Fold:
Amino acid sequence: MAFPRLHGVGVFLGTSMRVQLHDPLAIATSAIVEAILLIFVWILAPALLPFALIGALVYSAFLIGQHVLNEAAYIRIDHKINELYLASPLSPEAYFVGLAGGILTAYLPTIVALLVLVEIVAPLSLAAWGALVLVLLATWAFSASLAYVISTLFKDMKAIWPYASILTNVLGVVPPVFYPLSLWPPEWQAVALVLPTSSAAALVEAAAGLQSLDPGAFLLAAGSLGVEAAAAFLFGIWWAHRSAREV
Structure:
């Protein structure tokens, strides 16, 4: 693959961010869903609130993928504006990266609010903050890249919605993201440490001292998340270039 041409990322990022900010109800709805879950945890199992808050942060970064999937498909299928974008001197790689980055920027208020709550409920060390930033970026890169690729495979918006829901629930809710890895069946914990969402949550919780990971589990979680994020992002850039040439 040739070196990606990312000229125009700022243009697409700014455009995507403004489009998202023009729909504040969608941003508020996304935050309310997580807030309701956190309130239930706070009432029913307050000891798990630090885990739920970290899980909510990881889930917020992962949920960007669903927004990328819906927005990219909507632009391509309903408005066909992407054909105008791709006919411009700006590159399709920049379109993908700018779209994903703009949506992330628009949803940052939710992430910042959760960061404040985490610091209040379970103050993090400098190392834990570093781990949190890295895993959130890795989770966003994986989710946004996978979602963008999926968005190019369909010609009907109604066919995409079930996949967005499946992607979000199977990887974002079912694994130990909002609850400790220790509550996951022991024979399946290695599987959880390979999944990008639950591995991200486990790494931050370990860095924060909320739970321990033996060296093997730590390497499995960190290695899996790093490889998956890098591979997905590079594939997303390549796919953006390839699929644009087929339009």
Notes: The radius of gyration is 18 Å.
